[in-house]
């Protein structure tokens, strides 16, 4: 602390005071840091420190810094104001139900200083330990341990046989058989519907135009005949050779030849 | 051991990033003669897991040669054989001995060198010589390890083509799939067909 | 020494590039229990220039601290830590896990992002999750590398941690304050206030 003391009580002793104070302010990390330094100067246990003395020292210090026109961070000034308030509260007769009490505020400040001092001390002790890479050293050139990964391949007989099956299938020539499906082509339907329309004078249901019996009983062929005949009917209507009527939705489709 | 010089030499060689000459060690210790300390250390470590050795005039610690195996650890990692490798293995098993060209002809796909390497490494294939044709290609065959891994007494235990066919393994994928689907959704498929019939 | 297991452990820790957990050592040796061997080695090396030490549950060899002066020559001093960083490190080590706000509450000053970054980069601090309070602040803790760098077997070995704990200096101000205020004006508080009054 002696170095800090020197700078604090520079009082122009060596003519470099102004600069020293400036540097010193840079060196303090905030008001709490400065307060701890001042408290240490009381050379008593932090638990027995006088908050009032501390306040006076801090305020005097800040006042001096201001007189030297040094720029002070706002939080130094806030702390100064707060300490001045704390001092007045401690000195004035107690007002009723003041929360928090000035004693509590003083105690809180003291506890905070103790904690900061404890951590500063702890940090110093930590740094003074025998440190790896500074005081003690690990092996300079370790060979290193190697973990060699070895694959254990997994495969079972079923997978093997499936694979062989796949290979054999792939090797077989691929033959595509497209079976001709029995349908009624549109041309045939057109011819058939046109012919039947010509021989029937009135309305006739579309279904009555369909061929029956034999192969036509097969459902898929029957469906094809119905679809083709319907398209044929639409085509004839478009050509003006037939008329189509349907009385109800999904009702029977009626067909009639149109007088040309 | 209480000899401070030997302790210093010991620590220095331990922390050194490269082997050190006797003169270097001595220079670090203010010129103290270190030959005696080195000799003492060699003796100290003779029966330990670490030895102090001199190589080409430079000293360093190294692990005892008989412990090389503990510095290396094998870890087994189970891995599934790739489809390509499984197919190659199957082809060799059914057709051995075969060359790579023959495997490719049967698979209908090019086969990477790595695929066969995996099977050689797994110990399931071996190189069974060379085929006496132009180019003398290497031919492959299966190993006893292959038989025992797959639980086969001999290659004759591999199911024949007819058996594979019976097991459905040779049917085209579509047919097998269709059959499976039909079997799987019997009643619902039936319903659907009946419906279609009506609506026609 | 003729114990093969101890020799193997010795060689392994000697060759390892990083400190090893007892379980890792054991795994490398096929699961053999190594606690006994480690104890024997610690004793073997106690008076040598190299020591076997445990730091945060991990074992490694390092040079004896009393030989620092021999070895430090022509080695670069590890980067000097700023006062802010030293304080942060101490606060995290003694209070872990802590948030940045908690560090700042103790230091009474804002902590630049860079200060914690330096410690994270050095590998001495790690982010240990988030505190489940509003804002979910990140909390910091020390690493095994911190313990090994500062030669600590565990956080219990932090200098003076027991005394600090006993004195309540590791508890938040609020907690201690409440207790102190609840005690009311016991003698020490009375003294202090009397003193304060006098000095005014």
Give the termini distance of chain A in whole angstroms. 125 Å
H/E element sequence of chain A? HHHHHHEHHEHEE
The name CATH uses for the topology of the largest domain in chain B is: Arc Repressor Mutant, subunit A
Low-confidence stretches of chain A: 1-23
Based on helices, strands and strand pairing, what is the structural class of chain A? mainly alpha
Number of helices in the DSSP assignment of chain A: 9
Task: Give the N-terminus to C-terminus distance of chain B in angstroms.
Answer: 105 Å
CA radius of gyration of chain A: 54 Å
Query: Averaged pLDDT of chain B, please?
Result: 81
Q: Write the H/E string of chain B, N to C.
A: HEHHEEEHEHHEEHHHH
- Total helical segments of chain B: 10
How many strands, which pairing sense, and closed or not: the largest β-sheet of chain A? 3 strands, antiparallel
Total DSSP E strands of chain A: 4
The CATH homologous superfamily of the largest domain in chain B is named Winged helix-like DNA-binding domain superfamily/Winged helix DNA-binding domain
Task: Give an account of the 3D structure.
The complex is a heterotrimer, with 1 copy of chain A (260 residues) and 2 copies of chain B (200 residues). Chain A has a 3-stranded antiparallel sheet with strand order 2-4-3. Chain A is elongated and about 130 Å long. Chain A has helices at 2-8, 17-27, 31-41, 51-67, 74-91, 102-127, 157-171, 186-199, 219-238; strands at 146-154, 204-205, 242-246, 253-257. Chain A is mainly alpha-helical and 260 residues long. With 200 residues, chain B is α+β, with helices and mostly antiparallel strands. Helix content of chain B is 49%, strand content 18%. In chain B, strands 1-3-2 form a 3-stranded antiparallel sheet. A 3-stranded antiparallel sheet of chain B has the order 5-7-6. In chain B, strand 6 and strand 7 form a beta hairpin. The radius of gyration of chain B is 34 Å and the shape is rod-shaped. Classes of the chains: A mainly alpha (260), B alpha+beta (200). Chains in contact: A-B, A-C, B-C. At the A-C interface, helix 3, helix 4, helix 5 and helix 6 of A face helix 1, strand 3, helix 4, helix 5 and helix 10 of C. Strand 1 of chain A pairs parallel with strand 4 (72-80) of chain B.
């Amino acid at each position: 602390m002696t170095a800090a003391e020197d700078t604090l009580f520079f009082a122009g002793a060596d003519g470099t005071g102004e600069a020293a104070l400036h540097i010193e302010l840079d060196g303090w990390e905030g008001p709490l840091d400065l307060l701890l330094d001042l408290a240490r100067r009381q050379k008593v246990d932090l638990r027995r420190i006088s908050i009032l003395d501390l306040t006076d020292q801090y305020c005097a210090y800040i006042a001096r810094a201001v007189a030297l026109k040094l720029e002070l961070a706002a939080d130094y000034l806030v702390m100064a104001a707060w300490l001045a308030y704390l001092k007045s509260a401690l000195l004035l007769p107690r007002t009723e139900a003041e929360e928090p009490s000035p004693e509590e505020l003083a105690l809180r400040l003291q506890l905070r200083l103790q904690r900061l001092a404890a951590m500063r001390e702890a940090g110093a002790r930590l740094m003074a330990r025998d440190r790896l890479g500074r005081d003690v050293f690990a092996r300079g050139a370790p060979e290193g341990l190697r973990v060699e990964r070895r694959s254990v391949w997994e495969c079972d007989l079923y997978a093997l046989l499936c694979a062989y099956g796949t290979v054999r299938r792939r090797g077989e020539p691929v033959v595509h058989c497209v079976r001709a499906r029995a349908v009624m082509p549109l041309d045939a339907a057109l011819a058939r519907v046109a012919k039947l329309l010509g021989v029937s004078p009135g309305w006739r249901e579309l279904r009555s135009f369909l061929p029956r019996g034999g192969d036509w009983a097969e459902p898929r062929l029957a469906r094809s005949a119905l679809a083709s005949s319907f398209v044929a009917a639409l085509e004839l209507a478009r050509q003006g050779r037939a008329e189509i009527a349907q009385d109800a939705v999904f009702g029977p489709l009626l067909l009639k030849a149109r007088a040309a | 051991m209480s000899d401070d010089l030997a302790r210093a030499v010991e620590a220095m060689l331990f922390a050194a990033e490269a082997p050190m000459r006797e003169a270097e060690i001595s220079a670090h210790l203010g010129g103290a003669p270190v030959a005696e300390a080195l000799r003492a250390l060699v003796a100290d470590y003779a029966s330990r897991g670490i030895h102090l050795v001199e190589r080409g005039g430079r000293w360093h610690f190294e692990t005892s040669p008989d412990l090389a195996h503990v510095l290396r650890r094998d870890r087994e990692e189970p891995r599934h054989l790739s489809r390509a490798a499984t197919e190659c293995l199957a082809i060799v098993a059914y057709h051995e001995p075969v060359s790579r060209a023959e495997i490719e002809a049967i698979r209908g796909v090019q086969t990477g060198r790595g695929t066969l390497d995996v099977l050689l490494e797994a110990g399931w294939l071996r190189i069974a010589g060379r085929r006496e044709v132009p180019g003398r290609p290497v031919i492959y065959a299966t190993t006893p390890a292959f038989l025992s891994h797959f639980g086969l007494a001999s290659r004759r235990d591999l199911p024949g083509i007819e058996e594979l066919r019976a097991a459905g393994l040779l049917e085209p994928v579509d047919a097998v799939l269709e059959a499976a689907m039909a079997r799987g959704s019997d009643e619902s498929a039936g319903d659907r067909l009946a419906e279609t019939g009506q609506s026609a």
